Amino acid sequence: MSDLYVPQIPDHLNIRFVENRIVVERPAQDVYDWATTWSNLPKWLPFASGTEVRRGTEGVPAELGDVLLEYIFPELNEKPKEYTVVARVPGKLWTVVGRDMLDDDVPAPAMHAIATFTTFDLGDGTTLFCRLFERLLLDTDSRGPHPVVDPARIQPGLELLKAHIEGTAG
């Protein structure tokens, strides 16, 4: 799986990217709607232990301006993340920006992540789903690999996403 993504950004810079893709045997709108529904995130994303909708409607695709609190599995030693939908093209593209939550349940003043989901209709009832994640490193962050930007750790999550949307998840 190491060939899923070859980073072009040198390790000494303050940004990391990861892109993962999968073909889902469903129409693009179905894939988009399922992937952009906040409550589905813990069903497939390997690091999300739970979600809380702070602005928006639970159980439906998130709209522009909607806000989610994502809880991270404790073993990753990460603070919860607050994500806000900043771009949305229904059925095609969805982008959120994320900030760490500080100890007093207030979001950090600056964003640390951008996640973009895109769906491409392949013309035969199937969809190419892409997840691009960009993580900005703070001066206090380790420059080594982080699980959230490891394509080999993310791809099994996309396999779960595919199984849920196709109705084959166990």
How would you sum up this structure, described in words?
The protein is an alpha+beta fold. It has helices at residues 28-35, 41-44, 151-166, and strands at residues 15-24, 48-55, 67-72, 81-89, 93-100, 113-121, 127-136. It is globular and about 45 Å long. 24% of the residues are buried. The model has no long low-confidence stretch (mean pLDDT 87).
Q: How are the SSEs placed, and which strands pair?
A:
Elements: E1 15-24, H1 28-35, H2 41-44, E2 48-55, E3 67-72, E4 81-89, E5 93-100, E6 113-121, E7 127-136, H3 151-166
Antiparallel strand pairs: 1-7, 2-3, 3-4, 4-5, 5-6, 6-7
Separate helix tally: 3
Radius of gyration: 16 Å
State the end-to-end CA separation: 23 Å
Largest sheet: 7 strands, antiparallel
CATH top level class name? Alpha Beta
CATH H-level homologous superfamily name: START domain
